[in-house]
Write a structure and sequence with these properties.
Blueprint lengths: L9 H21 L8 H4 L15 H9 L19
């Protein structure tokens, strides 16, 4: 519902989602009381474990999938691209 009316137009719904979520930061930020403590003070401890993903491409993914071993011995292994071994 938008302004107490049901909306079915996709553009109207998308615009309302955009408006709502783009204002959340302002709304929550205004609820935080002022402080003399600087933001970096809160981030002084480093995370003991971090995770980073490198970008991949479709060829890398297909290569990994195609090299997986089948757990079913009675099925002929087929490559994900449809080409048999």
């Amino acid at each position: 519902m938008i302004n107490n009316q049901y909306a079915s137009d996709k553009t109207t719904i998308a615009n309302e989602f955009c408006r709502y979520f783009s204002n959340l930061g302002k709304i929550y930020a205004s609820a935080i009381p002022p402080t003399d403590i600087s933001a970096p003070t809160y981030f002084s401890k480093r995370a003991p474990r971090t995770l980073f993903f490198n970008p991949v491409n479709i060829s890398e993914i297909l290569n990994i999938i195609n090299n997986l071993k089948s757990k079913k011995k009675n099925l002929k292994h087929r490559h994900i691209d449809g080409i048999n071994n």
